[in-house]
């Protein structure tokens, strides 16, 4: 933990006066403010330049706080909380009247999760309110997995940042909602769909078109570098066809020595998908800062976290 007591108190003071700060979580950094305060939440939307039809996730520090955030919780939701909280699973539940409509973009549902990060939990447990927090980057960009990413994304407008080091998981939470007791996957994330299905049975997956207005995570163009990006299962051919251009490669476990390209990011030498997930956004940030003509990403094995990685790469390449 890089955060000291003085910084922690300063962050808490800002939050207690309707201000916003960046906090570390195990997934990505969040831009946090009092979820019960319209004033604080408006500041989040303004700084992030996020459209108001895009709802935020509410973060709680203890299960007791859930009663002030959501109502009529399905049995399967409790089973999922038991299995994955604190952790990278967000549940979409019926909203409590305490939660202002600005948080939920007018929806009667609220997205809620308990993050698994010592700093985030410490902050939450010192406050009398939950924190609304989207990822701490400008809307549509690559999510931040370090304090430096947050600072770079906002430049002179950067908020006060609690530095909690590099995010352990590196990809956003998985979002699950319910139609009665039937679980619905709204966004692939840091808990694999397979692991969720072990607890609550088959997930119905919502596609982009169905949820685009609700879930920005499902917007087709999202998590995007500024550099034009391609996702391909024929990387060698594509790289050859870009001869003479400045390209960067985003690779799973092996460099491509036969391709003449100095900017090659290998996400996991061990071929470990969780490690690759952790490293993905930092590699995208690095490649994006090089002034390349194109980024070429290879398709990942489409299982477990590989599905989430492919999902983010598809959106980055739209
Ligand atoms: O890992 C994470 O979830 C991070 C950290 C900071 O917790 N947060 C994050 O927030 O990724 P954001 O705002 O970048 O993404 C929130 C997603 C969006 O896709 C939003 O549309 C969806 O949650 N969402 C929020 N409320 C919803 C609701 N009521 N129904 C469906 N989707 C909802
Ligand atoms: Mg985001």
From TrEMBL:
Gene3D superfamilies: DHBP synthase, Threonylcarbamoyl-AMP synthase, C-terminal domain. It holds the Pfam family Sua5_C. One of its GO terms (molecular function) is ATP binding. Its EC number is 2.7.7.87. It is an enzyme of class 2 (transferase). It comes from the Bacteria. Residues 5-191 form the YrdC-like domain. GO terms for cellular component: cytoplasm. L-threonine binds at residues 27, 113, 133, 173. GO terms for biological process: regulation of translational fidelity; tRNA processing. PROSITE patterns: YRDC. It catalyses: L-threonine + hydrogencarbonate + ATP = L-threonylcarbamoyladenylate + diphosphate + H2O. The keyword ATP-binding applies. ATP binds at residues 50, 54, 59, 109, 135, 143, 187, 223. Its main location: cytoplasm. PANTHER family: SUA5, THREONYLCARBAMOYL-AMP SYNTHASE. NCBIfam families: L-threonylcarbamoyladenylate synthase. Belongs to the SUA5 family. This is Threonylcarbamoyl-AMP synthase. It comes from Pedobacter changchengzhani.
